[in-house]
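Journal club prep — side note

Before the paper discussion, L.F. wants everyone to see what a predicted structure for a comparable chain looks like in token form. Sequence:
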Amino acid sequence: MKPCFPKSFKWVIGLVLIALIGVGCGKANVQVYQDVGPTLDYPRTVAILPFSYDPGIDEPKRPDTILRKLFYNYFSYLGYTDLPLGVVDQKLADVVKLENDIRDIPASKLRKIIGTDAVVRGHVINATNFTAGIYAETSIKAKLEMIDLRTGEVLWETEHNELSNSSIAAPSIVDMIRGQTANSEVKKAYHKVAESFAIKVLEKIPDPSEIRHGEVSLPHILSVEANIQGNSNLQSNDLVYVSMEGDPGLTAHFDIGSFKTGVAMKEISPGLYTGSYRIKKGDRVSNALIVTSLTSKEGLTAKKFYKRAVAIVK
């Protein structure tokens, strides 16, 4: 005899299964067609174009501008000369007025308009943000690609789906309620998911910072280490300790995403800089990259981020 479950019970089971399926989208799968190298003429200047979006995505659920801004913020840590978003938009203003689809503009024409070696195109395929009873979800599925405007070739591309949810499968009812509350603020929810999306892609795309070091005479950062591993949650009073090896006798600091910036680092021996930040009660950090900066006496700054983990404080 088959067990007979009430409809409400079946509904709860369904939500649990959805939650378990949706948890952990994993790392971004980036297909790299041309990597950086000393013998390759890799693009120096890059523009992040306005991201497009699928026509089926409603106005309140369009995170294309949020994803573009977050991706640009983290992309700027790499060794490219990136054009500010405002400058890109200004250069494309006439094209937008003519209602042309930027995706249809040939690479050669784009290069004349923008003046960079390469561009990053982005297209949001789908986006969700809803709360239903005991389940809340925010997700962004998008395709990104970098195109060399000098040749028209795609250098790398990815199609990634980033998901954040809370449900009955959450560790505690408090976490579930907190997740649903955050999910109700659409822009903040999309900001959190877009940041995680950008960080995962950033970890996989080519970075020409090493081969460009000699060109612009930036300070040299050899390595960055921190005392956090994986993506474990930090608690109040935990100490985030960061060390960096680089050129001696310079000024150094580190940032924890945009949450805590300009944390001073002291040179404890020639070329070895250390600094720390103690987590305070009430601090809230989501998937924040630890980024170190080394500034020369001429005011030139090199940056390098810690790849092994991101800081999370709940």
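L.F.'s comment for the group: The chain is about 25% helix and 35% strand. Keep this in mind when we get to the figures.
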